[in-house]
Write a structure and sequence with these properties.
Chain lengths: 326, 506
């Protein structure tokens, strides 16, 4: 063994030791440095605002600075890939919805990542998809819309945020189970659809609650049905909103947003992050954000949050093959 | 209404608020001037600080940044031919040639004065016509927006100096670039070659810093190799007189009107309004003749500059009254409202009128501050021109790369910027106007998205594009523009000596 190899070997060994030491230290007094929170979308949207409010709350309970980093593009895939590639030391986490992570696995021939690439630190919001219409249209419930669609085949339009998205599943399932002829039009984003619903350019719109709640409270828009448990919404009349199941579409579709970590993170660190997440969403900071946002926070363990994923992939593929027009 | 505005001004008149608006505007001018760094980024970086502030001061700071960047971007467009923001790309057309002639003081002065005029008039127009502006934002349906985009594309000849064929080729390249990625209607991958990075399309920020920033550096490397020299030998610090601006009223009134109306349309905004107003003013100009545009005429700076600042009023009104953001910065401000315990949307004006009027007051104050800050800073900015090129270029490259990276916090846009720099450089050498690529890349997605959405909503009926009177008017406008272009092309073909200005590299 020559000297250069020996030096290399020693250097390697000391690096390994340092890493191990760092690992031990991080498990004990985690977190002891700045936490990076990846938001896989551009600034300004719903998930971004939630991320910023959550970062404030996490700073409060962890005593560490939390920096939000928007890694946008490819419908959230870029941000999740960045998380998967990051060092699993607990200092890089991401905020995203379960269906946003499972959709690329369910619908692509070559999945960009696997479920096994991630670990979970718990949910923070569980907001069902809901169906809205402009109050001028006079619908009181989803059945009213369907009745109208029956009377005018091919005429009525239901707007969705994007093809093969959570809102598409709801619209396509309603269309498939009712067997009615109405148009499902993708607006390629929540912003444009929001505008079209307010301007009454679509007869009904499917969007994730509580988006457009102020307009529903105001009376400009009417909520027709929800695709899940609406009891967390900050509007008494909408808490008891009918389920789309009442009109025959027996599925629950919600956006469950939670905190993700890269796979391979030390279980002790993951457990610590999990308790920080549940503490953070219980802070007054986060609660007051949530009441403004329009929906109560939702607590769920990391195991339960991750446990949704496999079933979701199966469900998505079922809906796709059964109802979605390709 | 007037009472509300008056109390808004009183609220914003406090020392702290004025100071914050001033700091925000100064920071905005600086951030805007750095290629690639944009107003949404600056606001995002300052967001955590604003959470600890009272609501109005927080928005005073944000509005300041928003207004300042609109002008700051033009400073680098004029001095370095590298627009600091997409909204200032059009200003480079006449601003840079003017600076090259040694009239940088005039160019920057015109930019500052017309931005202020556009900002102030746009503000007055927006406030006086709140329901109209809000209505434009809300009821502009996909077919209307598509037709506006098409009208813009037809005006391409305005940017194609020398050869219309080369101009059209540039637009086609831009359109092709913009068709890459996941298509929003049918979720089909187009030209992605299985690469995840291409799915969200070729990032526009990267195209911009590529064909301007990188290409400029590549083009000037030749010169640097031959020995360092200054960008220009004599720099005239003379700034324009108010009278010089007043007599060019056509330019700033057109720019302001376009900015105000188009700024209110979500998804088009300042990036589109500058080009449309520039083309309109150029085509209708008698003195200077249309051919002189692009060689450094004041009108070529005044029009886009008044336009991009007028969009601030156009974009803020729908954000405040409907909760519909006109552009990236207003989208982030909407998010910030929720963090501050406000509920943006139709109820904001009724529930928190102090915030709405305070914000509107801040917008006007920031525009006026911008004038004084920029006028004072012109001398400092011109200092840039007196550096040697070899000193400047590393800075442009660094800022352009950082700007591309920051657009999505990934490396992919940086590679795109470098590639586009090479493409832009080669095309420019062959006499292709690269601005037409940018024009195609801006308008392409707007047109495609809205044409397809319009058709989807109408069930495939093309008659939707003439379904309302405004649409009939827009279609007539497009037809008229096309007719004018064809007529000009034929006349130019018969009489080659009258053909525009000679292209620089041929």
């Amino acid at each position: 063994m020559n000297r250069r190899t020996l030096t290399k070997l020693l250097a390697g060994a000391s690096t390994a030791l340092a890493v191990m030491a760092g690992g031990i230290a991080s498990a004990q007094d985690f977190p002891s440095e700045t936490i990076r929170l990846i938001v896989p979308y551009s600034p300004g949207g719903g998930t971004d605002s939630i991320g910023r409010a959550f970062a404030l709350a996490l700073e409060e309970v962890s005593g560490q600075a939390v920096v939000v980093e928007n890694i946008s593009g490819s419908a959230g895939i870029n941000g999740m890939l960045a998380l998967a590639k990051s060092e699993p030391n607990g200092y890089t986490i991401a905020l995203n919805g379960t269906s946003d992570v499972t959709a690329p696995i369910a619908f692509r021939e070559q999945a960009p990542y696997e479920i096994g690439d991630f670990a979970c630190a718990g949910a923070i919001f569980n907001t069902p998809v809901w169906v809205l219409a402009h109050s001028d249209n006079g619908y009181g419930s989803l059945d009213d819309f369907l009745e109208d669609a029956r009377a005018n085949p091919g005429e009525r339009i239901m707007g969705i945020t994007g093809k093969v998205s959570a809102t598409d599943f709801v619209a396509s399932t309603i269309k498939g189970t009712s067997g009615l002829d109405f148009k499902v039009v993708s607006f390629g984003g929540g912003g444009p659809l929001k505008k079209a619903i307010i301007a009454n350019q679509v007869d009904a719109g499917v969007i994730i609650s509580p988006v457009l709640l102020p307009e529903v409270k105001e009376g400009t828009l009417t909520a027709l049905a929800g695709a899940g448990d609406m009891s967390g919404i900050n509007h008494d009349a909408s808490k008891s909103l009918g389920h789309i199941r009442d009109s025959g579409a027996d599925i629950d579709v919600a956006l469950v947003r939670g905190i993700w970590m890269p796979a391979g993170v030390d279980p002790a660190v993951q457990a610590k992050m999990e308790s920080l997440v549940s503490e953070a969403i219980a802070t007054d900071t986060f609660k007051s954000f949530a009441s403004n946002f329009g929906f109560a926070p939702y607590s769920e363990s990391g195991a339960d949050f991750c446990g949704r994923l496999d079933q979701e992939v199966t469900d998505l593929q079922t809906v796709l093959s059964r109802y979605l027009e390709k | 209404m007037l009472e509300g505005l008056a109390s808004g001004f009183i609220e914003m008149g406090s020392f702290t608020n004025l100071l914050l608006i001033f700091l925000g505007t100064a920071l905005g001018v600086l951030v805007g001037a750095l290629p690639g760094l944009s107003s949404p980024m600056a606001i995002i970086v300052l967001l955590p600080i604003t959470f600890t502030m009272e609501t109005l001061p927080a928005f005073a700071l944000m509005v300041g940044i928003y207004v300042g960047t609109k002008l700051g971007g033009s400073f680098s467009a004029i001095l370095l031919r590298t627009p600091g923001t997409p909204a200032s790309a059009c200003t480079a057309l006449d601003g840079y040639p003017m600076a090259m002639r040694g009239e940088a003081g005039l160019a920057l002065g015109y930019a500052t004065m017309s931005s202020t005029v556009g900002g102030v008039l746009g503000w007055v127009g927006a406030v006086m016509a709140i329901p109209v502006i809000a209505g434009i934002a809300l009821y502009s349906a996909p077919p209307d927006i598509a037709l506006i985009g098409i009208a813009g594309l037809v005006m391409v000849a305005a940017f194609a100096r020398g050869s219309i064929i080369k101009g059209l080729s540039g637009v086609l390249i831009g359109l092709m670039i913009s068709s890459v990625g996941l298509d929003g209607q049918d979720a089909v991958m187009r030209y992605t070659f299985g690469l995840t990075d291409f799915e969200s399309g070729i990032p526009f920020a990267a195209i911009l810093v590529g064909v301007f920033g990188f290409a400029v550096v590549f083009a000037d490397i030749e010169m640097t190799v031959k020995g360092s020299e200054l960008l220009t030998k004599d720099v005239n610090l003379k700034v324009p007189h108010v009278f010089d601006l007043l007599k060019r009223w056509r330019a700033w009134s057109t720019g302001t009107l376009y900015g105000l109306v188009i700024g209110a349309i979500p998804g088009v905004g300042a990036d589109g309004s500058t080009w449309l107003s520039y083309a309109t003013v150029k085509n209708r100009s008698k003195s200077p003749p249309p051919e002189a545009f692009g060689t450094g005429v004041p009108e070529g700076i005044i029009t886009p500059e008044s336009s991009n600042n007028a969009t601030t009023g156009g974009a803020l009104i729908p954000m405040l009254t409907l909760g519909i953001p006109g552009d990236g910065s207003t989208a982030i401000m909407l998010g910030a409202m929720v963090m501050h315990g406000l509920t943006p949307g139709v109820g904001l004006m009724r529930d928190d009128p102090d915030i709405v009027f305070g914000l509107l007051a801040a917008l006007l104050i920031a525009t006026i501050f911008m004038f004084f800050i920029a006028m004072g800073a012109i001398r400092g900015f011109i200092f840039v021109l007196q550096r040697e090129r070899s000193v400047l270029f590393p800075f442009i490259l660094v800022f352009a790369s950082v700007g591309a990276f920051a657009s999505s916090n990934t490396l992919f846009p940086v590679y795109v910027a470098i590639a586009m720099g090479v493409v832009g450089f080669l095309l420019e050498r062959r006499g292709f106007p690269v601005v037409t690529i940018v024009l195609g890349a801006i308008l392409g997605p707007i047109i495609e998205y809205n044409v397809r959405l319009g058709l989807a909503l109408s069930g495939g009926e093309w008659s939707t594009f003439v379904g309302t009177w405004p649409r009939v008017a827009l279609v007539a406008l497009v037809a008229l523009l096309l007719f004018g272009e064809v007529k000009n092309a034929i006349r130019a073909g018969r009489n080659p000596s009258k053909l525009a200005t000679p292209s620089t590299s041929e």
